[in-house]
Amino acid sequence: MVHSYLDHLECGRCHATYDADRVMHLCPACGGPLLARYDLEQARREMPAPSRDGTPGGGRADLWRYAPVLPIRDPAHRVTLGEGWTPVLPLGRIGDRLGLPHLYLKDEGQNPTGTFKARGAAVGVSRARELGVTDLALPTAGNAGGAWATYGARGGLRSHVVMPQDAPVIAQREVVAAGGELQLVPGLISDAGKVVAEKAEKEGWFDASTLKEPYRIEGEKTMGYELVEQLGRMPDVIIFPVGGGVGVIGIYKAWQEMQVLGWVDGERPPRLVAVQAEGCSPIVRAYERQAAESEFFTGAETLAAGIRVPKALGDFLVLAAIYDTGGTAVAVTDAEIVEAMRSLGREEGVMACPEGAAALAGAMKLARQGWLDRGQTIVLFNTGSGFKYPELLGS
Ligand SMILES: Cc1ncc(COP(=O)(O)O)c(C=O)c1O
Ligand SMILES: [Zn+2]
């Protein structure tokens, strides 16, 4: 049987440690998010070496190839739809235009449920099921709700999803199609979060809000592991659209784990770049002040619904990842996002979601500023399929 080397949980803020085999949410001591810690020395001895040639070698072409560093103890509890091992596509035409010959896009739109949220949902739902959870509840900007409801259905768990009333229609319908309970609320994901906190407590549901349980990030981190196998090593720069920040925190966590596993010996850390929309850019503002945490962004507005998060619980972890890797944070306008969606479709045949297009818009801005250079290998993340946004596709 595949062994998980999950050892304990550690608070990302105060570093207190906890038993990993109980249902846990935030750190009881300080309210910080809990992170899964593994016996990586042991895992190092037993995990297959990374393929590094872009193929899955003899292993599975999904995220379960990383089972030793995932938290599911018994493979019987895996809830899967074939998530992970998404392609890394060269962006030749756009790269030429920007003077960046080594520009790539990892297309997370090719996941089940059409976004990278499938990774977090696959691992989060599997572990929740393993720990005996029957009812999941979460606030969402849209896509995470669709993913958790879908994986909930697959795993036989009930889901209760709360999203802003103007969340993308496909994400709303996805929850209903998967048999989840959908509640729409006025306002933003932060308002949905308050409803979930109250109801989960009253009804005894498992609150699966971003970083309020430790395992969604474990699914997201597999994006970092895949990059090493697909490119042969970590890229110099990774550009990711940031809302709650789990993608960036996950990739940074993968980097830290891969150092112990011996996957990235002698490499410099990839510079992690957070891209946000000008209409909702708390992390960018915090970065500009070189602050450790962000402030609540009032009046948040952008058509990139997934990155409309006015204050993230894990903001300090996103900022630490940026500072530690020599990365940066940039904001782009909605007009630049729409233009980048158009470029990706017309020049590269990639149907990107607006959040993924924001990553390209961010790269264009950094290229203009001279922050990126032609010698670097740069990976943009298209976090979802443009097909989840029919109202924007082809506009
Ligand atoms: C398509 C898409 N991209 C990016 C994000 C931002 O991800 P995170 O909240 O993990 O920063 C989201 C979140 O909903 C999303 O749906
Ligand atoms: Zn703590």
CATH class division: Alpha Beta
Total tally of structural domains? 1
Q: What's the gyration radius in Å?
A: 19 Å
CATH architectural group = 3-Layer(aba) Sandwich
Which bin fits the share of residues in helices?
Answer: 25-40%
Overall 3D shape: globular
Distance between the termini: 50 Å
Q: Average pLDDT, to the nearest integer?
A: 97
* Largest sheet features: 6 strands, mixed
Give the strand order of the largest sheet, numbering strands 1, 2, ... along the chain: 4-5-13-10-11-12
Q: What share of the residues does DSSP label as strand, in percent?
A: 15-25%
How is the CATH topology named?
Rossmann fold
Quaternary class: single chain
Contiguous uncertain segments of 5+ residues = none
Count of separate DSSP helical elements: 13
Hetero groups in this structure are:
pyridoxal-5'-phosphate, zinc ion
How many extended strands?
13
Structural class: alpha/beta
How would you summarize the topology of this molecule?
Elements: E1 6-11, E2 17-18, E3 34-38, H1 40-46, E4 88-90, H2 92-98, E5 103-107, H3 117-130, E6 135-139, H4 143-155, E7 158-164, H5 169-177, E8 181-185, H6 189-203, E9 206-207, H7 216-220, H8 222-231, E10 237-241, H9 246-261, E11 271-277, H10 282-288, H11 315-325, E12 328-332, H12 334-348, H13 354-368, E13 378-382
Parallel strand pairs: 5-13, 6-7, 6-9, 7-8, 10-11, 10-13, 11-12
Antiparallel strand pairs: 1-2, 1-3, 4-5
Helix pairs in contact: 3-4, 4-5, 8-9, 12-13
The structure holds pyridoxal-5'-phosphate (PLP) and zinc ion (ZN).
The site of zinc ion has 8 residues, from loops.
